[in-house]
Sequence to fold (284 residues):
Amino acid sequence: MILLAFLACSPNLAETDTAVDLPATRPLAEPTGACPDLSSSGRTTMSSNGEDRDFYVFFPPDAGPDLPVVYYWHPLGGTASMMVNYLDLEQVAADNNVVLVVPDALDTNPFEWNFVAGEAEAADDLALFDDLRTCLSDQRQIDLRRVYSTGMSAGGLWTTFLSIHRGDALASILVMSGGTGNMVQYSTPAGEPFPALLVWGGPTDIFDAGPLQINFTETTAAFSEQLRTDEHFVMQCEHDGGHDLPPDPVAMTVDWLLPHIYGEPSPWRDRDPTELQDICFLPQ
Fold:
């Protein structure tokens, strides 16, 4: 069984005589450590919240400013290197004119990412997200209104947690086998409502480790209902592969995430969900 995680300056505006009021994203935080050199793609390390953190970053060739950014969070037992190699993420960045950030978890986290408690307990991983966002903005002038997060399993649960605690920094999320319940507690996210694509592997999408069992059908349904109550646009996709990636996850990531802009309605509101994949639908 494959357990892989999947998976900003504002967009250019025409000059007008009238000021355009755009929803404000989360203010950039002062980095908790020195920013690394982000002039080129590859693997690097930075000090974040007192910890040495390893990550990959990939830029498209001849990358200019105002590019979108996708964070990919790996699953339990996975690594950033595994994701990069399996999904050919350097080529994904080149093909789609997007910046990809792929962090490694700390060895001290039993679930890779610290999504089981509150912000204080998750300080290291939240700081890494914040620090990389600030460093990329300072050095590469990324589009702060097009920052996204995605992951599967532990990466999906962390994306769920991140959207709750950093919703004002995210234009959209793609959660694969994540959601809320016995691992991630829901609270209303700050900021503008964000579109969410929630994907799971059907009735057999269950993580079972003795006393710990996560039924991702239940956690996905709970997260979907909570988001929709808070007026977020939600689309869902159910495949029959159990606790695994959906079909063609790279295309799903690109086609869902990249059209979204922070604070603006989802373009998928006016499209047939099956245009994304025939397993996708709007929840009732």
Notes: Confidence is low (pLDDT under 50) at residues 1-19. The first strand starts at residue 42 and ends at 48. The helical segments are 80-87, 89-96, 123-140, 154-165, 216-229, 249-257.
